[in-house]
Amino acid sequence: MNGSLKKKTKSIKETISKLTKLLNFPLSNRLSTRLLLNLTLLSGISSIFVGLFMISITEDSISLYIQKQHNEIGLRASNEIRLFLETPIKILETVVESQEIVGLNPFLQNLRLNKIVAKHPIFDRISVIDTLGNEITTTAFSSEEKQYSKDDFFTTVLKGEKYLSPVQFNEVKEPYIVSAHPILQFNEVIGIIAARINLRSIWELVDEIKIGETGNVFVISSGGQLIAHREKKKVLDRSEVIDLNLLKQAASKQKKSFVFFNSENEKMLGTSTFLEDFKWIVVIQQLEDEAFEIVSRMRYQVFAFVGLIIIIAIVLSYLLEKRITSPIKTLVDGVKRYADGDLGFRIPTQRYAEITVLADEFNTMAESLLLNQRKLRKAERLAAMSKFATLISHEIRNPLNSMNINMQILKREIEKSDGDIINKNKYSEIIISEIQRMDNLINNFLTISRPPRFDLVQHNIHAILDEVIFSHSAMAEQQKIKINKRYCESKLLANVDGDQMKQVFHNIIINAFQAMPKGGNLDIITFCIEITKSNTIKIPAFRIEFKDSGYGIASNKVDEIFDFYYTSKKTGTGLGLAIARQIIDGHKGLISVESNEGKGIKLIIEIPVHSENIGIKN
Predict the structure, then answer these.
(1) 447 near 487, Cβ under 8 Å?
(2) What residues contact 373, with CB distance under 8 A and at least 6 apart?
(3) Rounded to a whole number, what is the largest CA-CA distance in the chain?
(4) Is the dihedral of CA 293, 297, 298, 304 positive or negative?
(5) According to the per-residue pLDDT averaged within each range, which of 44-48, 233-237, 342-346 is highest?
(6) How far is 257 from 397, CA to CA, in rounded Å?
(7) Most exposed: 81, 491, 539, 608, by fewest CB within 10 Å?
(8) Can you tell me the mean pLDDT for 47-72?
(9) Do residues 573 and 564 make contact, with C-beta atoms less than 8 angstroms apart?
(10) Of the candidates 472, 569, 561, which has an alpha carbon nearest to the alpha carbon of residue 524?
């Protein structure tokens, strides 16, 4: 019977191999390829003419559009920079007229200035300076008072004029400018307010503006000082990025668009906007080749149209191929499910007669395999029953002899007028214990000969585990065994037979206790996982690991641990784990073992959360 199963399994694998080769048949011999070529020939020539016509009418308009787009970007960037700089300057102009500043009260000045800095992070530092250059108050956290009489702005502001410095850099290499204003009282300068305005927002603005792959914005003073550029090293090194003659033309508004070569000798298309109040120039630059790339690309637009037609032809060919090969794929998937052991599945019939014949043959074969599998299971159970009958004939004789002897002793104790009640109870308990032992043997026999039916109901697996663990807590305490639980979440819901799962957990925990006669640790860990069915389908499942610190088992005995009647204990029947595996198999799950001889074993259970069509049928 095993030989027949192997032959049919081999036949399934050979059929899968043939069908796979059919699906990988060379594309050039397919009808879809011919359709693709015909569609390409019909549409290719007309697509070329349409593309050339589009190129001829769009070259000039695209060129004008690019220049206009650059101008708009430059104007928008310059407006943002102007607003960025005007805001703090207007704040300072308002502050110098306030009573706290004019009154030259350091405490009130400090309070007012710190409020401004807290509200407007654009200010790095604001200081009030007297007419001798001494710092009266500042927002900077420094105990050292500064002297500004030699600074550039000092002389200018003492004349009653406003001052805006060139771009400078602070300790962390961030750009800033100094804006200084006179503090007037009765038209006389009584002090100076100077503020550091941080320009990092301008750097950020410049970094954000990108035109194509190579285009960008930079800001430069009319004197040639680079203020903001996406390459910060050029700003810090004060590199020259544009010819000074072009800068003069941009500042005088003689040219708004121009072509120049950058420091890498690349030809750039430039557009400038002049900030007259600050003498700054905002330049939009982009590689000329990229800026006019669309014009060049339009000359080859015909190839895009041809490519589009090719793609459409390929899609149509693909859809046609899918229509033809979809039934074959369904057949292959069905055969794979048979190969995975799902013999209850039936391949649906298809629209093509030849495929339907194949599907019917495979379904017939699967039905035959399922029938043989059931016969094999019956044969295995009969063999197990035969072996168990031999075991019972040996095992049941011992408790019967023990009961016979103890009942005779108990009878004599009862007949005695002064019989000891303690002895009577002792012999009664021995008899009851032996009866229980025989009852267990008979229950195990019935379990093997009549496999359980499963009543699937949604249960909390953690609750079942907790109930079984609690029932063994007294024994664990007596044997000095510590049970450690590590659950994946508060609830682990699954469709299982609750009573059957309790028996599985009970058998595993009893085995673990027996493996640790001198005490130890039993770790129980749960996981939420996915298991793969039919090579592709993933379904939710749960995993439980029971890991003890007992003596373990030899590696060459691991494969026998779930066999009926296998046991390494003198008094064991070898049925606990065998019955556990039978229940797990019935739930379409897996049970396995990992052993480290001398250090304990790990039992692993994996069961689908939603089991269907489970249970062993005769």
Answers:
(1) no
(2) 5, 343
(3) 137
(4) negative
(5) 233-237
(6) 111
(7) 491
(8) 71
(9) no
(10) 472
CATH code at 96-198: 3.30.450.20
AA letter at 584: I
Query: Going by CATH, does the domain composed of 457-608 fall within 3.30.565.10?
Result: yes
Other CB atoms within a 10 A radius of the CB of residue 317 amount to 20
Is the fold of 202-296 the same as that of 457-608? no
What's the pLDDT tens digit per position in 257-301? 777 777 778 888 888 888 887 888 888 888 888 777 777 776 676
- Of 469, 487, 485, 486, which Cα lies nearest the Cα of 477? 469
Torsion-angle region of 574 (φ positive above 0: left; ψ -120 to 50: alpha; else: beta):
left
In the structure encoding, which two tokens stand for residue 176, read together? 């800033």
Give me 370's structure tokens. Answer: 């399922």
Three-state secondary structure call for residue 294: helix
In the chain, the percentage of residues whose pLDDT exceeds 90 is 5
C-beta of residue 232 within 8 angstroms of C-beta of residue 135: no
Q: Both tokens of residue 454? A: 């499963």
Q: To which H or E segment does residue 190 belong? A: strand 188-198
DSSP secondary structure string for all residues of 146-188 = PB-TTSHHHHHHHTT--EEPPPEE-TTS-EEEEEEEEEEETTE
pLDDT in tens, 518-573: 889 999 999 988 887 656 678 888 999 999 988 878 776 666 676 655 555 544 55
**Percent of the chain residues past pLDDT 70, beyond the cut:** 70
Phi, psi of 120 (to 5 degrees): -125, 90
Model pLDDT for residues 61-93, shown as the tens digit of each residue: 777 788 788 888 888 888 888 888 888 889 888
Q: Tokens at residue 98, please?
A: 């306030």
C-alpha to C-alpha distance for 330 and 337, rounded to whole angstroms: 11
∠ at Cα 575 (570, 577), nearest 5°? 105
| CA–CA separation, 212 and 260 (whole Å) | 18
Break the chain into its structural domains and give their ranges. 96-198, 202-296, 396-449, 457-608
Q: Which has the minimum average pLDDT: 184-188, 235-239, 522-526?
A: 235-239
**HEC string for 307-336:** HHHHHHHHHHHHHHHHHHHHHHHHHHHHHH
- Tell me the C-alpha to C-alpha distance, in Å, between residue 56 and each of 53, 297, 298, 299: 5, 12, 9, 9
User: Residue 74 in contact with residue 275, Cβ under 8 Å?
Assistant: no
Helical spans, DSSP H, in 472-563: 473-478, 498-514
**pLDDT for residue 5 is more than 60:** no
Task: Of 225, 214, 180, 219, give the one whose Cα is nearest residue 202.
Answer: 219
Domain boundaries 202-296, corresponding CATH code: 3.30.450.20
> For the chain, give me the number of helices (H) and strands (E)?
18, 19
Q: What angle do CA 425, 429, 432 make, to 5 degrees?
A: 140
Among the ranges given (32-36, 124-128, 137-141, 512-516), the one the predictor scored with the smallest mean pLDDT: 32-36
Residue 468 scores a pLDDT above 90? no
SS (H, E, C) 489-501: CCCCEEEECHHHH
Q: Which of 38, 40, 52, 36 is nearest to 302 (CA)?
A: 52
